C-alpha cells in the first residue's frame, strides 16, 4: 500500500524552536539556554549599575551653584565645549573612515587575489589590536609635523571656510590631526565587520547579476552593497563608539584643555573631548571637581547609548532585506 500522508492532527504540537511538545529538553540545551539568559540579564544589570553610579556621583555637581563648578560658569557651560569637541572629532573621523572601510572591504572580498586578500585580512585584524597610545605617539611625532605645510596652505587659500579659518598651528597639534588619528584607529574595526558581511553575500545573487550582463561594479552595487548595508551601519557605529570614548590618543595630540567651541580644525586653539579632559584633569581634581568630571562622563555615557540605540533602530528597519530572499 502506498504510504499515507501524516495529517496535521496526528502530529505532536510543536513548541518554540520547532521541538515537539512533551519531548524533554536535553541537559545541554537547558544549560546553554540558562547561561545565555543569565548573560543577557547580567549585561543589563551592569549597565544599570554603571548608570546609577554615574548619576549618584554626578548629582552634587548637577545641583551645585555655578560659581562652585570648575570655571565658575556652571555645569552646562563646562561640559558643552568638551561635548562639542567629542562630537565634532568623532563625526569627522567617521566621515573619513567609513568610505575607506567600505572600499578596503570590497577590495579584500571581491578584487584582491586570494593570497593578497588573506594577508590584508590579517593586517587589518592586527591593526585593531594596536593600543591607542601608539596611535597618539604616531600622530604627535610623525603626522603633526607633516600637516604644518598643508594646513598653512589651507588657511591661506581656503580660509573663508570655517573649518580652515586659521591661523594654522605651527606645531601641527590640531583637531585635524586628532581626527585623522581617530579615523585610522576606527578603520580596522569597521573594515573587519564590513568585510565579513561582504564575504557572506549569497553566491547565487552575484552569479545571477553577472549572468544578466552586469559588470563587476554593477554586481557589487546591486547585490553586495544592499546585502551588507546593515553591516556597514553596524561597523560604522562600532567605530563611532570607539571614537567617542577615545582618551589617550586625543589627549596626547591636543595635550591641552580649551574651553572654546570652534569648527576650526587647523588652529592651535582646539576644543578638547570629554574623555581626554577627564584623563588630563582627574589626577589633580578633588571634591566637587571630581563630581563635575563624572557628570561629563555621564553625558558621554548618554550620548554613546543614544548613538547605539539609533544605529539599532536603523538596522532593524533594514531587516526586510535578506540574502535568502
From TrEMBL:
<keyword id="KW-0592">Phosphate transport</keyword>
<keyword id="KW-1003">Cell membrane</keyword>
<feature type="compositionally biased region" description="Basic and acidic residues">
    <location>
        <begin position="1"/>
        <end position="13"/>
    </location>
</feature>
<comment type="function">
    <text>Part of the binding-protein-dependent transport system for phosphate; probably responsible for the translocation of the substrate across the membrane.</text>
</comment>
<dbReference type="Pfam" id="PF00528">
    <property type="entry name" value="BPD_transp_1"/>
</dbReference>
<feature type="region of interest" description="Disordered">
    <location>
        <begin position="1"/>
        <end position="27"/>
    </location>
</feature>
<feature type="domain" description="ABC transmembrane type-1">
    <location>
        <begin position="83"/>
        <end position="311"/>
    </location>
</feature>
<keyword id="KW-0812">Transmembrane</keyword>
<keyword id="KW-0813">Transport</keyword>
<dbReference type="InterPro" id="IPR035906">
    <property type="entry name" value="MetI-like_sf"/>
</dbReference>
<dbReference type="GO" id="GO:0005886">
    <property type="term" value="C:plasma membrane"/>
</dbReference>
<dbReference type="InterPro" id="IPR051124">
    <property type="entry name" value="Phosphate_Transport_Permease"/>
</dbReference>
<dbReference type="GO" id="GO:0005315">
    <property type="term" value="F:phosphate transmembrane transporter activity"/>
</dbReference>
<keyword id="KW-0472">Membrane</keyword>
<keyword id="KW-1133">Transmembrane helix</keyword>
<comment type="similarity">
    <text>Belongs to the binding-protein-dependent transport system permease family. CysTW subfamily.</text>
</comment>
<feature type="transmembrane region" description="Helical">
    <location>
        <begin position="75"/>
        <end position="108"/>
    </location>
</feature>
<protein>
    <recommendedName>
        <fullName>Phosphate transport system permease protein</fullName>
    </recommendedName>
</protein>
<feature type="transmembrane region" description="Helical">
    <location>
        <begin position="293"/>
        <end position="315"/>
    </location>
</feature>
<feature type="transmembrane region" description="Helical">
    <location>
        <begin position="175"/>
        <end position="198"/>
    </location>
</feature>
<feature type="transmembrane region" description="Helical">
    <location>
        <begin position="219"/>
        <end position="240"/>
    </location>
</feature>
<dbReference type="GO" id="GO:0006817">
    <property type="term" value="P:phosphate ion transport"/>
</dbReference>
<feature type="transmembrane region" description="Helical">
    <location>
        <begin position="120"/>
        <end position="141"/>
    </location>
</feature>
<feature type="transmembrane region" description="Helical">
    <location>
        <begin position="31"/>
        <end position="55"/>
    </location>
</feature>
<dbReference type="InterPro" id="IPR011864">
    <property type="entry name" value="Phosphate_PstC"/>
</dbReference>
<dbReference type="InterPro" id="IPR000515">
    <property type="entry name" value="MetI-like"/>
</dbReference>
